[in-house]
Amino acid sequence: MAGLIKALSDLATALARRVETAPDPARAERAEQLRRHVAEFLAPRAADLSAPLVVVLLGSTGVGKSSLFNAIAGGPLSESGLIRPTTRRPVALVHPADSPNVRQDGSLAGISARDQLDVRVDPAITPGLIVVDAPDFDSVERSNRNLAVELLEAADLVIFVTTVIRYADQVPWDILARARQRGVPLLAVINRMPTDTADEAAVMADYRALIERGELDRQGAFGDLEVVSVPEGAIDPASDGVRREDVGPILEAIERLRHDDVERRSVARRSLDSALAGLPEAVERIAAEVEREQEAAASLRKALESSYRAARKELNREIETGTFLRTEVLRQWLDFVNAGPVARYISEGVGRLAAAMRNLIRPTPPPPAPEVREAAFADLVTSVVRHTDTSASKTAAIWVDDAHGAMALSKEAALWGSSPDLVSELTAQLEEWMEVIGDEIQVMGAQRKGRAQAASIGLNVLGTSAILAVFIHTGGLTGAELGIGATTAVLNQKLLEAIFGERNVAAFVNRARARLDLILDSVFNSEEHRFIAALGPMAETNDLAFDLRRAAHAASRAAPQ
Hints:
The chain has 561 residues and is of the alpha/beta class. The protein has two domains: 51-259, 3-Layer(aba) Sandwich (Rossmann fold), CATH 3.40.50; 296-546, no CATH class. It is 64% helix and 8% strand. It has helices at 2-21, 25-47, 65-73, 99-105, 109-113, 142-154, 170-182, 197-213, 248-259, 261-321, 327-337, 339-348, 350-361, 369-399, 403-411, 422-447, 459-471, 480-500, 502-535, 544-557, and strands at residues 53-59, 91-94, 118-121, 129-133, 157-163, 186-193, 227-231, 235-236, 241-242. Helix 1 (2-21) runs antiparallel to helix 2, helix 2 (25-47) packs antiparallel against helix 10 (261-321) and helix 17 packs across helix 19. The termini are close together.
């Protein structure tokens, strides 16, 4: 049994993961029902075949489950009547010796722990059997329906109750289909049968034909499925139940199981074996859902990554060519630098350059380095926002046509555009980037012996020139951009090389550009991650489907022989 207990524990754990990661409540609920079946019925039953047998009365609204329960109990323990649903909480008839199994460690312990089980203790009955009157599985109250299905998963034996006018309804047969899949032993009762013998025979024949079609004929508790016919009006007012003489076969089955340990263990073993055999089929539906979700998530992620990758590539091209910078920003910088004198002094030597720059700066207003830098940053931020906006809208337009993508978008309407905090966060990161550039310029200046006097040009001027050197190169510029863009690129490069040396400048610009790329990559990754976060756990690639199938098959193979 150790191997079976281990396999069931693994399966319960995998199902719990599914509950946590399911993309919608319906799928989470389905996985939770199966998890409880595994953890609260299969595991306890596998651990102890001699534990009390759980017999559950199931049926639609108003078919007489409570009346049958009262007949079994011999008194009015479960309320019957015209108001629906009558059974709002399941009622369990229990011998005192079996009470711990209900409340602590049996297949009903989970329901009892949630205070969803009305336990009626009767010392007059024989121990070994727990009889439960379940809520209606077609109740108007969702919680009642869910609890009825949960009791089906916890049952060792089901007494299925219907009426002459309800036996062909679709909902009961949906429940019976799950009972067939589970392999739980069955007894059947048709209430309110017509007293005419021919009419009764016609109903019984039709019902048996439906049972055979549903492959339930061999699922009887003691062989072929037995159907008990209860005539219309067979009521015992004293017990608020059906007349005991009209449900004799049911009462005999109950007493047989109460007094015969071998028979009781046989039913328990059969219920366990059938449930274990049905595990792969029950788990397959959930595992297939997980796989389809993973495939959908992979497709959605592919569209997401493609959109943002293309935008990032285009932004990279704009930075390399400087085309994101406004012409007036470049012109403002060139007007300050005074291209002609600077070009002449660059060719004559750095000392003349420094003097010229001091002469240019001193008699004029303060250099516009901060304004140019801020404008350049603003242009870069604008370009980033434009590209991330476009990527977001393209991605959302694709996702909205997919059920999972549409669900993610409904959770976060802001996904149709870039993040509201993008501008402020990117601007702050660029300012930090500028501080690092300033620190490196000071270090490089100190390392150039005899040229430290060039620092008199000013950190702001050199820093802005360095930033523009990162932002703009001569390659790729065309048309109207060629003149001013190329001029700016050349002068910035020459200015920096004259002061710090060609090799130092090249390495410095590469480092600065690499840090900028890290910043921009982080921004684009964050923008993408908003979609992944909205998609939820299904976006995470994992082996859940494999783990579910493996544990289910392991439990099925480990069934005791």
